[in-house]
Amino acid sequence: MRTELSEFLKSKFADSLTEQELFRDQQSFVVKPDSIVSVCEALLNDENLEVKFLADITCVDWLGHEQEKQGRFEVVYNLYSYKHSYRFFLKVRLDGESPCVRTLTGLWKGANWLEREVFDLFGIKFEGHPNLTKIVTPDELEGHPLRKDFPLTWEQPVFSWNKDDPPEVRNER
Amino acid sequence: MSAEKKTVTLNMGPQHPSTHGVLRVKLELDGERVVTAEPIIGYLHTGIEKTMESMLYYKAIPATDRMDYLAPMSNNLGYCLAVEKLMDIEVPEKVKWARVCLVELTRVASHLVWLGTHSIDLGAMSMLMYAFRERELIIDLYEACGGQRMMTSYIRIGGLASDLPADFEKKVRNIIKTIREKMKDYDKLLTENPIFIMRTKGVAVISAEDAINYCLSGPMLRGCGVNYDVRKANPYSGYENFDFDVPLGKNGDAYDRYLIRMEEMRQSLKIAEQAIDGMPEGPYRAHVPGVVLPPKEDVLYKMESMIFHFKIITDGFEAPVGSVYQAIESPKGELGFYITGDGTNIPRRVRVRPPSFVNLGALPILTEGHLLADVVCAIGSIDIVLGEVDR
Amino acid sequence: MGLEEKIPDSIILTSLDKMVNWARKRSMWPLGFGLACCAIEMISTFAAHFDLARYGMEVMRASPRQADLMIVAGRVSMKMVPVIKTLYEQMPNPKWVISMGACASCGGVFNNYAILQGVDRIIPVDIYVPGCPPRPEQLMDGILKLQEIVEKDSLKKVHEEWGRKAV
Ligand code: SF4
Question: How far is residue C96's CA from residue A73's CA, in Å, rounded to a whole number?
């Protein structure tokens, strides 16, 4: 499946596939943000590969790491093919200013909540999402807690006390 | 209610006895029928992922216990396997077998709690008492192993926290024997109980296509006949050595999921029995200096081990730059840990793929058009743990 | 040589305080809601093996209007804070609160943005039960300690307390 998959992506999406990596036996492909929906659609509908299962959507914040140069946020799509029992990852690199990518809710309804969670915790906008609202954090909370510049113990709304400085102050330093 | 608006909005939870914790469901009702049911979550958001990203790899293990607190060992296992993959550690055979044994008993314990709470929602009060009585046996085993009743943190990176207790085998065999015996009672109480069948058959139905489209996993997915079990599809921790069946359902309703979980408990007992029969001898931790803690006995008597112990506890170890994902079959479904190392001793990202979070996303389609009373049955049959949904 | 000798056996003399406290102590109704892992231990306490019913406290009430003991079993997230406050205010007086577990008492292992660092910041707590999670025996001990507190209460003091607690 490994070679088939990279052949498939190379032949069909030669210009949107920017990078391939293999780490600990796990294959990941970095694709351009605007092509993620078409890549997923092709994988889902391909009769040979049958990538039917979107296991997870998540995000990594590379703030302050050398990887940040290629894009601060890395949205990771975790895909799985039941037929081949094979798992691989699609990654999308986004800049830190206004991270935005197309939604996958048209292909998988399960993407709805997964994307909402990424939006809530990282502030990645998913264009075309039917209901992109907060999901786990309280409505009063401003900011996106899983970003690296959000302090761990910054409490919002405040009921007890705050040990850290507020997020904005930390940003300036 | 105005004349045009035909539906009533009803708020269920966050404090409601049958939402299994602090789930809130916003219901649109047309008389007794549910038009839409929208789960609202986050009432137990604990920031566990962020906490784990601020700690050494070792120190995050207790936080994993507290996610799916009905199956602490499964969480430990998932996290430790992921870190082991990241650090490229191979664990001894004995550790694998002991882990399988413990994790399968954890599945039984988790399903017992589900059985008790699900049936109490449907009106079978005595089931809860029976289920918790039997669960207590497994909890005792946890206590013998890890010293704690629920939050054991017994499975560690590269091995176990300590060697298996001396009477481990006796205890496990006793558990297997007792629960096998009691399962017959459960069957008599519920499986053929006409009230229970009426409350669950044909309720909360989901088709196979929808289940895949909603990214479900675990008994929710297998209930509609899709054969996907991580233990079989991508074996981890030596599951390829065990002989067991994966029960499948046909109709995808609450009753099928009930049957599947009951059968899973029997299969888990079978696996645990195989594990205890074939448990190999050997060390309980891998020997990887600088990454895996040396055994406690050595730390007390050997200088070198003590230095490593001190170093790992204070500084941890440095992980390479890269991401790994390790999925395991937890009692609720596919539990995955996505860990990104960035060359330092704390992880850049620890993402948990929570099975009950994804499964709960299908609640609207499960309840659409059903009666209000069936919402309770649907929530129960998804088997959610709010600690894992919200993290 | 007093009044006591003159009255028949079937009559017991006591102070109103004592009688009311005795009745209250033996018929406490906990509010049946759990938050996190500690709730499972709480259910264990109520279930077959440990059987809290021995102390006359097993009637879990689903509605706060009928309960007089709140067991905060688990971590309180920021989103849950207003809910807990409302629930507490809905309970009729006199009412007591047990904070069960490290999280409810002080935030426990989660010193972060999402968890309230101790439920006593929003509602008055009578008994803290330590542990993560506390063993069922510990919770029972906490409840028995609470019963001692209730026993010593005086109606007068309780009245004053209501004024204080209601603020
Ligand atoms: S004190 Fe421990 S067991 Fe209780 S809710 Fe907190 S983490 Fe869970």
Answer: 48
Beta bridge partners of A60: A74
Q: Under CATH, what is the fold of the domain B48-389?
A: Cytochrome-c3 Hydrogenase; chain B (1.10.645)
Distance from CA of A64 to the nearest CA of C (A): 21
Q: At residue B25, what is the residue type?
A: V
Which residue, judged by its Cα, is nearest atom 6 of ligand 1? C103
Task: Respond yes or no on whether the N-terminal peptide bond of residue B280 is cis (omega within 30° of 0).
Answer: no
CATH of the domain at A97: 3.30.460.80
| Residue having the nearest C-alpha atom to atom 8 of ligand 1 | C37
Distance CA A130, CA B31 (A): 27
Reported as a single tens digit per residue, the pLDDT across B121-179 is: 888 788 888 888 888 899 999 999 888 888 888 998 888 888 888 888 899 999 999 99
ipTM for this prediction: 0.87
- Cα separation, B136 vs C135, whole angstroms: 12
d(CA B292, CA B310): 12
To the nearest 10 degrees (0 to 180), the angle between helices B254-277 and B168-186 is 150
User: Distance between CA B95 and CA B164 in Å, rounded?
Assistant: 10
Domain that residue A11 falls in: 2-172
- Distant-in-sequence, close-in-space partners of C82: CB < 8 Å, separation ≥ 6: none
CB contact under 8 A, C113 and A156: yes
Which residue puts its alpha carbon closest to atom 2 of ligand 1? C132
Structure-token pair, residue A144: 């996106």
Which one of C103, C117, C139 would you pick to mutate in the ligand 1 pocket, going by the greatest count of ligand atoms within 8 A of its CB? C103
Q: Alpha-carbon torsion C67, C73, C79, C82, what sign? A: positive
Q: Is C131 on the interface with B (CB under 8 A)?
A: no
Compute the distance between CA of residue A161 and CA of residue B75 in angstroms, rounded to an integer.
31
Domain extent listing, chain B: 8-40, 48-389
